[in-house]
Design a protein that fits this description.
With 408 residues, the chain is of the alpha/beta class. It contains 12 helices and 14 strands. It has 2 domains: 159 residues, Alpha-Beta Complex (Aspartate Aminotransferase, domain 1), CATH 3.90.1150; 231 residues, Type I PLP-dependent aspartate aminotransferase-like (Major domain) (Aspartate Aminotransferase, domain 2, 3-Layer(aba) Sandwich), CATH 3.40.640.10. Helix 2 packs parallel to helix 8 and helix 3 packs across helix 7. The longest helix has 32 residues. The structure holds pyridoxal-5'-phosphate.
Length: 408
């Protein structure tokens, strides 16, 4: 019998709310302590900021960690410190947030889009290899949704061609590949602490690295070009003020205590949800067999096949699922290169070579993921219970059942 969908004023499958961020009095007290101290800023990036950086570096198994205002700036500082020059090419995926590619433009370099793997939605190593030219200087693999890229293959390609690797780990706090924390494998790894992220202080960013020279260069770029041991008004490089406050460091340090347990919960729930969704015709969770040991599930992604849902378009399906109470979203509407920024070359003052033309770029796997396939369940929902995962699966089954009677 047809069950009434929530979108048609029927009962919701999932009534529970999934809060984010999660905090208690210990977080409030950590921030209150700094508030009372009056030491809100930290122009030398020592004290609490330094302590949090050390805690974060240790959590990644990296030698150094450097905080900054957000994940975009983290990527930009890492790329510039890696020594790129104007006109150099940097390989990025087209299925990611705009910052992964726009920071390349901001360094006067050229983002070159390589398609993603249809099983994982991460950069496909063979596509990376195909995109390499004599101008390529770096690769930015994005551990999309918290799933590890195929880092053995990517590092081998980088070694072979003498390229730098900057991991975009904005989704991947606490996640691991062959038991190594993501972010700690390439030359540098960049994290975001923006409000939706698995570790957050509202805004913020972090770079981890084992490379001492890179660390000192990034430290200078973050701090208006100052250098270790230099005078206050002595500026050696073209940097800016990208420092975080002590208030952010206090909150992040307090939140970091929860990260491991939360990551494990998301990982286990994701694994369980995979077993449930695999049983539904027309629903396919992304593959999990490419070397990742912990998936941080910043996003739980599954592939939707409308043929098993009476040809219901993905956008409509995602709306129905959200109405059923599953915190979900249809994801990126189009590949990055289709954004007006690239199509219209609205690069403003940045000096990008004339011959660069994004109207000719076509990455079929990304096109399909955006237009018809990918559906996202958001990270805070992955902190729920096993029963919640079962309810998410029930909501999908309810829609599948109801749309049999659907005429569009
Ligand atoms: C994959 C990816 N990279 C980079 C960023 C940039 O981080 P932020 O928003 O902190 O600048 C984001 C943020 O959403 C992201 O999702």
């Amino acid at each position: 019998m047809k069950k009434h969908l929530a979108i048609e004023n029927g009962p919701k499958t999932v009534e529970k709310k999934f809060p984010w961020p999660i905090y208690d009095e210990s977080d409030v007290e950590a921030v209150a302590e700094i508030t009372r101290s009056g030491q809100w800023g930290n122009p030398n990036c020592d004290g609490l900021v330094k302590r949090f950086e050390e805690e974060f570096a240790a959590s990644c198994g990296s030698k150094y960690a450097l905080s900054c205002v957000n994940g975009s700036v983290a990527l930009r500082l890492a790329l510039i410190a890696c020594g790129v020059r104007p006109g150099d090419e940097v390989i990025v995926p087209p299925y990611t947030f705009i910052a992964t590619a726009s920071i390349v433009l901001e360094a006067n370099c050229v983002p070159v889009f390589a398609d993603i793997d249809p099983d994982t939605y991460n950069l496909a190593p063979a596509e990376v290899e195909r995109a390499i030219t004599e101008r390529t200087k770096a690769i930015i693999p994005v551990h999309f949704a918290g799933q590890a890229c195929e880092m053995d293959e990517i590092m081998a390609i980088a070694d072979k061609h003498g390229l730098r690797v900057i991991e975009d780990a904005a989704h991947a706090h606490g996640a691991a590949y062959r038991n190594r924390k993501l972010g700690s494998i390439g030359d540098a790894g960049c994290f975001s602490f923006q409000s939706s992220k698995n570790l957050t202080s509202g805004e913020g960013g972090m770079i981890v690295t084992d490379d001492e020279e890179l660390y000192h260069k990034m430290n200078s770029l973050r701090n208006v070009g100052r250098v270790h041991g230099g005078q206050w008004y002595e500026h050696h490089f073209l940097g800016c003020n990208y420092r975080i406050t002590q208030l952010q460091a206090a909150l992040l340090s307090s939140q970091l205590k929860r990260l491991e347990e939360q990551t494990l919960t998301r990982h286990e729930n994701g694994t369980y949800l995979n077993t449930l969704l695999k049983q539904i015709e027309g629903i396919e969770p992304l593959a999990r067999d490419k070397g990742e040991t912990i998936h941080s599930y910043h996003i739980y992604i599954f592939k939707y096949d409308k043929r098993y849902f009476n040809n219901l378009p993905k956008v409509k399906f995602a709306e129905m699922l959200a109405a059923e109470g599953v915190p979900c979203f249809m994801g990126y509407p189009k590949p990055l290169y289709k954004q007006p920024l690239f199509q219209e070359k609205n690069f403003m003052c940045y000096a990008i070579p004339e011959e660069v033309d994004y109207t000719r770029v076509f990455c079929p796997v990304t096109e399909k993921a955006c237009s018809e396939e990918a559906v996202w369940i958001l990270q805070h929902a992955m902190l729920g219970s096993k029963q919640d995962m079962e309810d998410f699966a029930s909501a999908i089954r309810k829609i599948q059942d109801a749309v049999k009677y659907y005429s569009g």
